[in-house]
């Protein structure tokens, strides 16, 4: 079985090492690198070539958002999950606009493994409270244009559940369908909305008043 390779960027030594232990304890994953900031990000990524990066937003020297922008420019295939201790922080939007694939709260360690699996499968994990904050920030700015997008009833249901931060597993259980079916529907949503991530899909659906 091919393991998911994960790199951790976090200036908190205890949290960083805790994440390494958590990831290495999961049979499907391997922590291939831990780093205190993004000062040497290019070398760090080239040396370990992860599938997924757990990126702290608040770090000295080179911040997580700056690191995210570098990864998006030079390593577009790598999935990036941003983590922070803050829920109501406008930097959430900055991360989404910079191309983050997911956003989780640091204190929710129990959900980190599921988030890594989900983002590696093409999902966009987001803590529910963060998802709500994103919606609150975006809705007042949403465009009134309503370009027709032909989404099925099921696809709209899935989009609504994604918008409040539900994982693929929870969506599957809620709608009484399989995980792979949720994944297939989500890929169709991406194609129809012409986006490449769950976060972008939700943002565009809100903009077009689909949800």
Give a brief description.
The chain is α/β, with parallel strands linked by helices. The chain has helices at 13-24, 41-48, 64-74, 91-98, 112-120, 128-138, 153-163, 168-175, 179-193, 198-207, and strands spanning 4-9, 29-35, 52-56, 79-84, 102-105. Strands 2-1-3-4-5 form a 5-stranded parallel sheet, sandwiched between helices.
Describe the overall structure.
The chain has ten helices and five strands. The chain is of the alpha/beta class and 211 residues long. The chain has two domains: 4-127, Rossmann fold; 144-207, Arc Repressor Mutant, subunit A (Orthogonal Bundle). The chain has a five-stranded parallel β-sheet, sandwiched between helices. The longest helix has 15 residues, at 179-193. The model is unreliable at 142-146 (pLDDT under 50).
Key phrases:
13% strand, alpha/beta, 211 residues, Arc Repressor Mutant, subunit A, Rossmann fold, single chain
Overall geometry comes to globular
**Oligomeric grouping of the chains:** single chain
Content-based structural category = alpha/beta
Looking at the overall shape, the CATH architecture of the largest domain is 3-Layer(aba) Sandwich
CATH topological fold name of the largest domain:
Rossmann fold
Q: What top-tier CATH class of the largest domain fits best?
A: Alpha Beta
Number of strands: 5
Total number of distinct structural domains = 2
State the major sheet: 5 strands, parallel
Q: How many helical elements?
A: 10
Mean pLDDT: 83
Spatial extent as radius of gyration: 17 Å
Q: What's the helix-strand series?
A: EHEHEHEHEHHHHHH
Neighbour order of strands in the largest sheet = 2-1-3-4-5
Helix content: 40-55%
Regions with little confidence, pLDDT below 50 for 5+ residues:
142-146
> What would you give as the CATH superfamily of the largest domain?
Response regulator
**N- and C-termini, Cα separation:** 38 Å
Q: How much strand?
A: 5-15%
């Amino acid at each position: 079985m091919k393991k998911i390779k994960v790199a951790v960027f976090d200036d908190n030594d205890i949290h960083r090492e805790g994440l390494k232990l958590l990831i290495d304890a999961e049979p499907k994953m391997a922590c291939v690198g831990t780093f205190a900031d993004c000062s040497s990000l290019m070398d760090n990524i080239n040396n370990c070539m992860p599938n997924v990066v757990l990126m702290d937003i608040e770090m000295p020297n080179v911040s997580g958002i700056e690191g995210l922008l570098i990864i998006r420019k030079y390593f577009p295939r790598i999935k990036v999950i941003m983590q922070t201790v803050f829920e109501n922080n406008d930097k959430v939007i900055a991360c989404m606009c910079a191309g983050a694939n997911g956003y989780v709260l640091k204190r929710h360690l129990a959900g980190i493994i599921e988030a890594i699996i989900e983002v590696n499968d093409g999902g966009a994990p987001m803590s529910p409270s963060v998802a709500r904050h994103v919606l609150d920030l975006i809705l007042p700015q949403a465009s009134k244009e309503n370009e027709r997008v032909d989404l099925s009833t099921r696809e709209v249901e899935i989009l609504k559940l994604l918008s409040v931060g539900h994982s693929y597993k929870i969506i599957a259980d809620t709608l009484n369908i399989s995980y792979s079916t949720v994944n297939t529907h989500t890929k169709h949503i991406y194609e129809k909305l012409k986006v490449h991530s769950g976060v972008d899909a939700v943002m565009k659906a809100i903009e077009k008043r689909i949800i």
